[in-house]
Amino acid sequence: MWISKILPNPAAPELQAKLLDRRLGKPNRCVVEGNRAYLPMVEGDGIAVVDLSNPAQPAFLTAYHDSELLDKTYGVAVRGSLLYVASREENSLIVLNREALERK
Questions:
Q1: What are phi and psi of 92, to 5 degrees?
Q2: Which of 35, 39, 43, 90 could connect to 48 by a Cys-Cys bridge, CB 3.0–4.6 Å?
Q3: Long-range contacts formed by 49-52: CB under 8 A, 24+ apart
Q4: Does the structure show a pLDDT above 70 at 26?
Q5: H or E element that contains 90
């Protein structure tokens, strides 16, 4: 079975790494693109970006906050250089250039 190469013992998965950081703002549904993870912030009204270039040590990279448009951010999607971020409380969708966000 192909999963054995990824997860040798599915009944007992092994922790590979962890990141505990309050700046993640109680993250919601994570999306991974390349060596970045994008986490909607339920508390913090925005999106957090985590650097995964060293999978054994994920690191907080940056965050974008907008309390007017992203109250209780719920979801995120990535297409090319764009992030699509949705807010449940504000009934909004914003589009961010992820490359510009990560340079700040």
A1: -130, 160
A2: 39
A3: 49/98, 49/101, 49/102, 50/19, 50/24
A4: yes
A5: none
Distance CA 100, CA 2 (A): 38
38 CB-contact burial (10 Å; exposed 0-12 / middle 13-18 / buried 19+): buried
Residue 64, Cα to own-chain centre: how many angstroms?
A: 11
- The share of the chain scoring above pLDDT 70, in percent, equals 91
Q: Measured in whole angstroms, how far is the alpha carbon of residue 9 from the centre of its chain? A: 27
> At residue 51, does pLDDT exceed 50?
yes
User: In this structure, which amino acid lies at residue 38?
Assistant: Y
For residue 81, give both structure tokens: 């250089």
- For residues 96 and 82, give the distance between their C-alpha atoms in angstroms, rounded to a whole number: 6
Please state, in angstroms and as integers, the Cα–Cα distance from residue 78 to each residue in 8, 21, 23, 24, 44, following that order.
Answer: 30, 23, 21, 18, 20
